[in-house]
Design goal:
With 253 residues, the chain is α/β, with parallel strands linked by helices. The protein is 40% helix and 24% strand. Bound molecules: adenosine-5'-diphosphate and magnesium ion (MG). Residues 13, 16, 18, 36, 38-44 line the site of adenosine-5'-diphosphate.
């Protein structure tokens, strides 16, 4: 049984076939890359996996379970977390508070949080401790108390990953995590992504627009264009694949 399996998935918006007959298999422990030109359908694939949009056709299996009929709030507890292409942090609160919020989300109902129930206080300390550990893992221990919005862009992206990790996922979906970063920040980020996979044992799919950015860390890469998968293989195979090169050349033109 594959860890994650998308089978002949379709998704259209009006007349636009955002994802078309898309099939993808990811094995447990893999670090997979999903690349392709702008508008290829990459983000839509994440939106389908996380249940943000229902599929038109096809099926998505996670650890053998069909996710297609489930809503996002039912999918997250099954162990799937994501980051977004555009940052979605609470800019005015601390990096730490941003991560703690994710712990609260997983553990408490709104009413429990509102009335500070007994187990809330106990777990609040635990959540704080774990959030600090996560920020430390992401190399941000000394930034924990700074307002997230005041951190350099690359650090904000890492806070967002820490927040996704607080949901304790088995599968982590990263949507263009390197966007807007300088080469040095990208190098650091790549090492962190690799460590999340290897040290924390979390399976990862990382979307990247610029294919060279993920090539050195991914075990396998799939390339999309116009909603369809046009190639998949090892980074070496993908980098020299004629259809992949043509897709990127077409975009430049
Ligand atoms: N919610 C939506 N409503 C309408 N069109 C959408 C929506 N989401 C994506 N699309 C369209 O689907 C196509 C694929 O988009 P997307 O998945 O965001 O591509 P990528 O992430 O590869 O750049 C694009 O043509 C985009 O405009
Ligand atoms: Mg996108």
């Amino acid at each position: 049984m594959a860890f994650l399996e998308l089978l002949n998935v379709d998704k259209s918006f009006g007349g636009v076939k955002a994802v078309h007959n898309f099939t993808l298999t990811v094995q447990e422990g893999e670090l997979a890359g999903l690349i392709g030109p702008n508008g290829a359908g990459k983000t839509t694939v994440f939106n389908l996996i996380t249940g943000l949009y229902p599929v038109d056709n096809g099926q998505i299996f996670f650890q053998g379970e069909d996710l297609s009929p489930l809503k996002p709030y039912e999918i997250i507890p099954r162990g799937i977390a994501r980051t977004f292409q555009n940052l979605r942090l609470f800019a005015r609160v601390s990096a730490l508070e941003n991560v703690i919020t994710a712990y609260r989300k997983c553990q408490y109902s709104f009413l429990e949080a509102l009335f500070h129930a007994g187990r809330w206080k106990l777990s609040e300390a635990e959540a704080r401790k774990r959030a600090l550990e996560l920020l430390d893992f992401m190399g941000l221990a000394d930034k924990a108390l700074q307002a997230a919005g005041t951190l350099p862009y690359g650090h904000q992206r890492r806070v967002e990953i820490a927040r996704a990790l607080a949901l304790e996922p088995k599968l982590l979906l990263l949507d263009e995590p390197a966007a807007g970063m300088n080469p040095e920040e990208i190098e650091d980020l790549n090492m962190l992504i690799k460590r999340i996979c290897t040290n924390l044992g979390i399976t990862i799919i990382v979307i990247e627009h610029h294919m060279e950015l993920v090539m050195e860390i991914c075990d396998c890469v799939a390339c999309m264009n116009f909603g369809a998968k046009i190639a998949e293989g090892t980074p070496d195979e993908i980098q020299s694949h004629p259809e992949v090169l043509a897709a990127y050349l077409g975009e430049e033109a």
